[in-house]
Amino acid sequence: PIQIAFPESIPLGHRCVEKIATISLLGRSFYLYRTRAPFAPLIPCLFFVNDTHTHTQQYSPESDPLESIFPQQQIMVTVKKTSSGKSKLVQRHGKTTSSTTSLVMKCIQGAVVLLALLILFTAFMIHSHSNSQGTTLEQQQQSLHAWSPIHMKDNTNQNHQNVQPLAPMSNQHDGEAHDEAYAALSSVLSSAAEQMGFNHFPQFSSDTSKSTIGRQNGGSAMEAFDLTVNHMPTIPFPKEFEPPLDYERHPVTAEDFLPLVIASEVQLRFRLRPLIHAPLEGLRDISAYQIICQRAAHSGSSNDNAALLWDSGKVDVTTMPRSIPYGGDTTTLTIGTVVQWKVLVWDAQKKGPAISPWAKFGVGPRHDEWKAKWITHRADYDTLKNEQRQLKRGNLPPRLCELWKQRRPLPLARAEFTVEETVTAALLVVSGLGSFSVALDGHALSTSSVQDPPLTDYSQRVSYRGYDVTEALLQKSGKHVVAITLGSGWWDGLPINGKIVFQDLMPKGSLTTIAELHLTLTDGTTVVKIPTGVDVENADAGVGWKVGKGHIIESNLYTGETINVGTLHKNDGWDSTSSELTGNKPFPISWEDPVLYKAGISVEEWHLKLQGYAYDHIIKEASNAAPIGKLVPIQMPPVMPIERIAPEQVSGLGEGRWLYDFGKGFSGVVRFEKGLPTPIVPKEYPRNHNVTDHGAVDFITVVYGDTLEMKTGDINLVLVAGYGYHNGGWRRKAGLENPARGAGPCWPKDHAKVLTQRDVYILPKDDTGSSQSNAAEAFGKARQSRFTFHGFRFAEVCCTEEPPTDVYAIKYRTAFSNWGEFDSSNPILNGAYEMTRNSFDSNMLSVQSDCPHREKLQYGGDMVANSPAAFHYFDVSAFYSKIVEDWTDSQWDNGAYTTTSVFMDILRDMSIGQKGSGETVWAALPPVLTVRHMHNYGDIQLVERTLDNHIQWMDFLLENWAAGMERKYPGALQNYKGGGSGLGDWLAMMPRDSWLTHHAFYLASIRAVAYLANQLIQKVPNSDKKEHWESSLKKATEKNAEIETMIRSVYKGSIFSYSNHNLEGLGQNLGLFSRIVNGTDRCTTLRSWLNSAANCRDRSWPGDEEAAFYNSLNAKDQEELINGRNLFPKRNNVVKPRWHLRYAVNSGILDVKYTFKTLSDMGFHDIGLSKASGNHFPGYGYMMSFNATTLWETWWRSEDLYSHNHPMFGAIGEWLPSSVAGITLEPTTVGGEDLIFWPRIPMNRLVVDFASALQGTKRGDAAIAWKFVGSQDATTVKVVIRALVPPSTRANLRLPPKATNVTMRVAKEFPDLYTAKEIAALQCEKKRGTGQHGYPYFYHYDREKNEWTKINKPSRTGTPCDSFLWYVGGNDDVAWESYSYEPVVLHETSTQSPLQPGLFEIEISDWKFEDPLPDVPGYGDYQGDMGPYCSDPNDFVWDVNDGLHMM
């Protein structure tokens, strides 16, 4: 019998797929889905099977009996009966026009009838089925897309929002079944799903060894997903994206990114996700796992595509391992091997296995195993030979500029080859300096290139990529071409004297590349083809490489790229076999043999000279051809396009100049999908749009910026000026009136006064000075720049008769996964979270930079401050592991760490130890980040690799600290009142206390060594380095006590003081959060902190930008602010800003974290909420009132100095999910295995009515949502909380003791949260699209009236949305059962009750609202409960296992 069950209501608005019925057959359940295309009516999933013996049967409206049910629709289905009796659906087409709700229900009914017929037919007519493994390129891509964590987001249409894919819809009930029927059903439904472009339809099979989704005949309750090797996922080619410029879309490899490893260094990891209807008890943990590694299968190969490399067998475990080393014979992992691997897991009830999709990785060569050598263009290398450079900061000699100009245009490299052997695998490995992109037979091998390889100290370490090109070589015989395009990157950028950015100290040379192709033959032997450099030394070594000058005139990470569209057009096909080096086609490229790149100085000599300069600042002489360090496989996902953004508005600025507003700030470039129109010549070129440096040319310029100038409406250029030349503008003209005098002769002469972000497309005029006849065709070839990126929201295109059409922006970022989400009822809190995410996205392109345009530098202090938020937002496991090693590469022999990851001699006068050391907070990043990495990811291998470096840093500090402090702060602080030598709490609204921050991160460095040594002693107990670790732990523990005592000396009763002067800002809160203050003093310290805040009564601010704004505000809005106590009343016809701490944020880069975390942790969470949600200056709401979409570098507006895209205040992005929503890692956990669900339920609903968060961990995805339930005027309400605990995770629920009437229940079976998540995302995007629910107003400047006006129009930024956790359980679709609430009192302010993996609902039935705490200054004198620091002080001593409160 067939049973069909409909839900009572069907949620509409689902973009991709939703379940509309459950069908039970022979004891198993199947699901009927309907799909919808964007802008189209609903299309039920209809599948037909023909019961005749003809080969095909087509259904059309003329022969379809359901035409009356589906009017104006055409449904064509073809079913092919194969010779073996298999049935395969090979075609399915649907065309729809209009639909109504009643029609939808008819469609559903008809669909159910047809699917029921399908099941009956398949049960008796189809006799066999094999679940074949994916072998073709298309199937590999589909398999990868099914689980890949990286998907490009397409926002070119607001109604077409890309979201994370659904998890497989499975988990069938037990019972005997007709296996042939299910196998047949799997074949037909899967094929149909492929035809419809839906890759997540369930596979049905009674053979669990072939299942990819589990729960057949007692399958597992969970499955492994997000498989990574050395923290890196396999990333498929995005279906939505077309690679740049002349490359066509069609990929010749399944992966956009293939992780690459050394055979002996393979660490495999996976995460877990529950399957729908999984029983609760099965989710506790895995009981066993199995890993299968085999040679990657490809179509057309003659060997056994499933050749096994390693099968771990079923490994019984008590908990999920943090990582699994490759356990096979590593000698079989020869260079060039491409491995596909999968994970099988058994759940806590020992049911399973569930089988993951395949992932892949390649095996690359060690540095000394490369056959190839670095090659370069002869003309470029000739500019380096016998040329010396001085290692110093600034004042580059003019000759360096002359030589750099001689290296333009940039080179290309090309090699032709044939493959006569029969191959089973082909791995192409490539690197290039500064940046590179690779094509095979004219097709891009990756969408990356902008920062390939990622920035490292190239004299120490250079990354290389690997590409699986097996499929391309198997499918096309004969001649092939590998083509490499090179960009300048950090290796050969524009040589100007920077301010702050001192690239003169970085290794430099001519653009160079290295590549080789590793072939694995059928007999298992390997062959290396086309190694670069070999044919240079031996002309008979095979097909050689050729180099030539290409279409990119110059590329620069700060000033952009210049492209010759004439060369681009004429050279079309140079990278494919259609291009012959000799022939009739008039290629403008002159191809020639390359030369070897040979450094003029050894790696060791370079290091010693640079170190000598760092120690004593005496100029050293070095070669212009810097050395290149060891080659290593890429250590993190590359920078890739992650979003496509359509302009929200296009405005004409006159004279052929067009302004594109993309709606938010990000890093990327503008792409012209249909090319550029022909340029026009205006009467006068607008500022910095002229091009005079390339002879007689026609040209189009694209200028980028974050903001618009208040007075002119043009892009504000100075705020995004590169090389540190942002301290200027029209009011601050120092250094810009004659920029070449300070910056040197290579300052671009078209960049009048301000170094500009711009891309330039040029076409040289003919010999007569006229425009070329093919100008339209040439400019039509332009697409986008390739080896640069810009920080921008706005772009000006100049000059064309009409604005270019089909224009969108490509947003770039390192391609790690998004792990975190937050939402609440408050638009300001949501906006702060959103702005922080946008700023992180903008500044994480191979390094974590401070801003994406001006400096682009990897500063240690910025990551010390905001890396906790980055750990929330993203899976930065590989990214931060690489960054730690960036610093260990740059560590000096004396143990000192630097301010930036690549030494630039920045902040040298602010360091305590001198001798190359960075400012203490900034240089403390490597050990601090290693601790946080261990806390979140549990990577003990990273700790083993780097602990010795951190110990050397500790020893350096211990040796130099006393003398350094006496030099910086003489006289034992007798007259110290803040400030001092050091950045301290940079850009706070109060004076900076650098003495405290120096000592705090001196302490953090010592604590980090103690923590890491202790972890190694526990987790690697049999190491021969155990005694060394124990000795370091002992030393660090002793020094920790000494430094704690030193810092405590400034906490004197009711004040925080060095000399009876109560310092404001960062101070007591740092001591409280970091467990420094003595237990007996904690309550007093807390009171003194609140009192210091209370004493910060209404303040003004002398900033000229705020003065200009407030005094240009119209009278009505001025009066409103005065009445609201946000402006002082007029005096001498002038108003001044007025701010107070209860509703404002005065914190600097470090204090944001300590203020908000300490307030929430010690019972003053509501004060934190009021501070974070303030509308006015200074705070996050103030930024939003000027339409900010990214964080500013300062709390005050800046028109001519500070960045408008800087994640410096981004610590708010961690506090919101961890405290406002309430999900965080337990302080002593390792690898995120222990969670605390601790929603700080507010005293009232003045700021927040609901909140939610999603938090990815290395175990799986956790989530929380809470809301008040009751009328707005009620004094007592219900609080409902939902908590999702991932498998293999220990968790506790914390509630305040006032929550006495608590009930808890848990879902007996795991509900369909995957569909719920997608529906929630679509509903949220729909709500955002209305533009009616976000931040409520913005200030607009009227240039004619010279007046600011408040516009009461909401934005999309900050739109509140409901958590996906509320999208289940409303229609009895969740079976709940009671769960014991067993609170254990931790303190007077907190209880704790254990949770297990699963979905929980907690209800507090009588939450009584309280009046808010008194306003400033009253709350500083608060005498009530001071929180756990007073009630149980001994519980808050720093524990050596505590990675959270280390600092």
Mind explaining what this structure looks like?
- β32 (552-556) and β33 (560-564) form a beta hairpin.
- The chain has 1447 residues and is α+β, with helices and mostly antiparallel strands.
- The protein has 29 helices and 61 strands.
- α1 (101-125) crosses α3 and α24 packs across α25 (1165-1172).
- Helices cover 23% and strands 24% of the residues.
- The strands form 14 sheets. Strands 7, 32, 33, 37, 38, 39, 40, 41, 42 and 43 form a 10-stranded mixed beta sheet that branches. Strands 12, 14, 15, 16, 18, 19 and 20 form a 7-stranded mixed beta sheet that branches.
- Residues 1-20, 24-29, 33-110, 120-151, 157-218, 241-249 and 729-735 have low confidence and may be disordered.
Chain-wise SSE layout:
Blueprint: E1 2-5, E2 17-25, E3 28-36, E4 42-44, E5 74-81, E6 87-95, H1 101-125, H2 137-147, E7 153-155, H3 179-195, E8 222-229, E9 232-233, E10 235-236, E11 255-257, E12 260-261, E13 267-274, E14 288-295, E15 308-311, E16 315-316, E17 324-325, E18 338-346, E19 354-355, E20 359-363, E21 375-376, H4 378-382, E22 388-391, H5 398-406, E23 411-418, E24 423-433, E25 435-440, E26 443-444, E27 461-468, H6 470-475, E28 479-487, E29 512-521, E30 526-529, H7 534-537, E31 545-549, E32 552-556, E33 560-564, H8 565-570, E34 595-596, H9 603-616, E35 620-623, E36 630-633, E37 639-645, E38 649-654, E39 657-672, E40 697-705, H10 739-743, E41 758-764, H11 775-779, E42 790-798, E43 807-814, E44 820-824, H12 827-842, H13 860-873, H14 877-890, H15 920-923, H16 925-937, H17 940-968, H18 994-1019, H19 1026-1048, E45 1051-1052, E46 1055-1056, H20 1068-1073, H21 1082-1095, H22 1104-1111, H23 1115-1123, E47 1127-1131, E48 1134-1137, H24 1151-1161, H25 1165-1172, H26 1180-1184, H27 1212-1221, E49 1223-1225, E50 1234-1237, E51 1250-1256, E52 1261-1269, E53 1276-1285, ...
Parallel strand pairs: 7-37, 12-20, 27-36, 33-41, 50-54
Antiparallel strand pairs: 1-2, 2-3, 3-4, 5-6, 8-9, 8-13, 10-11, 13-17, 14-15, 14-16, 14-18, 18-19, 18-20, 21-29, 21-34, 22-35, 23-28, 23-31, 24-27, 24-29, 25-26, 25-28, 29-30, 32-33, 37-43, 38-39, 39-42, 39-43, 40-41, 40-42, 44-51, 45-46, 47-48, 49-50, 51-52, 52-53, 53-61, 54-60, 55-58, 55-61, ...
